[in-house]
Structure to design on (206 residues):
């Protein structure tokens, strides 16, 4: 299965979710490849901080991913692509290579509008990639606030599945990534639980 975390807007937590998805799938015994397709190279920089890698991370910020990924597919059970913001040509290549696009967004009206742009790109790509599926994921949600509920109502207009398991705004995510780790390793109970539920739901979309 090839997952891509993609949104034309930056700062929505694509890299955080990509790394944690790869880490959790690896923890479950899968052979995992994380492709850092963002020219900023944040996932690759994170991997370089790790002493003992548990999955493979490579940089591939180029619009030929859909051609090159076939050479890698047979060596891994799961491939995760951390996509870039605002690079349409690269995004289109990722969409041609992918089975499931996850569009992370913050619970804000601005993010709903930006998500709509990415949904449009997905629908264009589905003409050429017939197996391509898409879902929305609310990230960095602040617990016990009404805005998350209100954003879900607005997202329904996009006519795209919305994951039920949100990921919260937690300092533990930033702290662990800064040290080349994840919340799965650092023992943050709530963050760890959120990621596991998130992955469980993600894997049901086939």
């Amino acid at each position: 299965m090839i997952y891509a975390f993609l949104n034309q807007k930056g700062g929505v937590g694509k890299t955080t979710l990509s790394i944690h998805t790869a880490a959790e799938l690896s923890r479950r015994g899968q052979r995992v490849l994380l492709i850092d397709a963002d020219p900023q190279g944040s996932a690759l920089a994170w991997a370089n901080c790790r002493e003992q890698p548990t999955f493979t991370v490579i940089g591939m910020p180029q619009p030929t991913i859909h051609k090159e990924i076939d050479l890698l597919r047979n060596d891994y059970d799961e491939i995760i692509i951390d996509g870039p913001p605002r690079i349409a040509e690269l995004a289109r290549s990722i969409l041609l290579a992918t089975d499931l696009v996850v569009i992370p967004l913050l619970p804000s009206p601005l993010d709903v509008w930006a998500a709509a742009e990415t949904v449009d790109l997905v629908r264009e790509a589905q003409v050429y990639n017939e197996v391509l599926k898409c879902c929305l994921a609310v990230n960095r949600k602040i617990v016990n606030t009404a805005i998350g509920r209100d954003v879900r109502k607005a997202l329904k207009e996009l006519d795209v599945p919305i994951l039920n398991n949100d990921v919260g705004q937690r300092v533990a995510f930033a702290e662990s990534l800064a040290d080349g780790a994840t919340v799965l390793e650092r023992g943050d109970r709530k963050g760890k639980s959120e990621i596991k539920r998130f992955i469980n739901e993600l894997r049901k979309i086939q």
Remarks:
- The chain has one domain: 2-196.
